[in-house]
Structure formats: C-alpha cells, structure tokens
Amino acid sequence: MFRKTTIALTTAASMLAGAAFAGGHSKDIVDTAVDAGSFETLVAAVQAAGLVETLKGEGPFTVFAPTDEAFAALPEGTVENLLLPENKDQLVAILTYHVVPGKVMSTDLSDDMEAETVQGGSVTIDLDNGVMVEEASVVTPDIEASNGVIHVIDTVILPEG
C-alpha cells in the first residue's frame, strides 16, 4: 500500500511539475492544478466553494494542494458531505486553510515557523523530517504559477474548531 501510494504521489507530482513548467508559469494556480489531472477533488471543491475566481486572481498565493489520494484518505463520505451546498461555509474554511497570502517558496521556510492562512488560522511548518505543514508532508515543493506557488501535500489539513 505504501509503495503504491508513493508511486501515485510521485506520478501526480511529476505531472503537476510538467504542467507548470510547460507553460513557463503562464498558467494560474487553478489552471495548473486542472492540467495536472491529479487534483480533481481539490478543483471540484474549489468550484463548489466559489473560490475559482479568487485563486485565478492576481495573488500572489501559496497553496498547499492535497492530492486526490489525500482527499480519498478522509473518512468515507467526508468529501461528498463537504460538497453539499449547505456545507459551503465549512468547505470554504477548509480550503482557505490551505492558502497563505504571498508567494512562499521552500527556501523561505524556517523550522517551527507559523504562517497565517487566508482562513484566519495559522499553520506550523516543521523541517525536522522533511517539510511538514501541520500533519501533511510536502511531496513536491515550489511549483510556480503565474499568480503564486503550489506545494503538493499528502494529507488534507483541517482547521481547529
């Protein structure tokens, strides 16, 4: 299972990196994620939350982007429940918890730094065992887009409360 997941994440990251660099950073964060093909759940959630125009905006934004596998690892029914119109506020809160204003490259990170998210909470960066954002590992850093940067993560991070 671990090897299969690692291969899937590596493939997803490679596809995303290829999509990002093929266009010379001419694509925004949303289009870069769509083209990668491994962020269908994230893109569907961004659409359901009404955040497409925001993430296509000027930015810059730093997005910690969970893969489809990361969403699939949530308890059964979680994603479907979040995509219901009556849960839009909760979905927006979760998605904006994955976004930090500004363009933060991996070289800008320091151990135990706090980064305030668009959601209003903050995430802690841990550099002791690779790069961690809360409990998520960054599997591919620094995928540049025209309006920011994407760091691919292997876990959906959830705000407290």
Describe this structure in words.
It is a single chain. With 161 residues, the protein is an alpha+beta fold. It has one domain: Roll (FAS1 domain), CATH 2.30.180. 38% of the residues lie in helices and 22% in strands. It contains 7 helices and 7 strands. The protein has helices at residues 2-22, 29-36, 40-48, 52-55, 68-72, 78-82, 88-96, and strands spanning 61-66, 99-101, 113-116, 122-126, 132-133, 136-145, 148-153. A 7-stranded mixed beta sheet has the order 2-1-7-6-5-4-3. A hairpin with a 2-residue loop joins β5 (132-133) and β6 (136-145). α3 crosses α7. The longest helix has 21 residues, at 2-22. The chain starts with a helix and ends in an 8-residue tail after the last strand.
Rg estimate, integer Å: 14 Å
Query: Total helix count?
Result: 7
CATH superfamily: FAS1 domain
The total tally of domains equals 1
Distance between the termini: 31 Å
CATH architecture: Roll
State the secondary-structure class: alpha+beta
Q: Indicate the low-confidence ranges by residue numbers.
A: 1-23
Strand order of the largest sheet: 2-1-7-6-5-4-3
CATH C-level category: Mainly Beta
Q: What do we call the CATH topology?
A: FAS1 domain
Strand/helix succession: HHHHEHHHEEEEEE
Number of strands: 7
Largest sheet: 7 strands, mixed
Strand content: 15-25%
Shape assignment:
globular
Mean pLDDT: 86
The proportion of residues forming helix, as a percent range, comes to: 25-40%
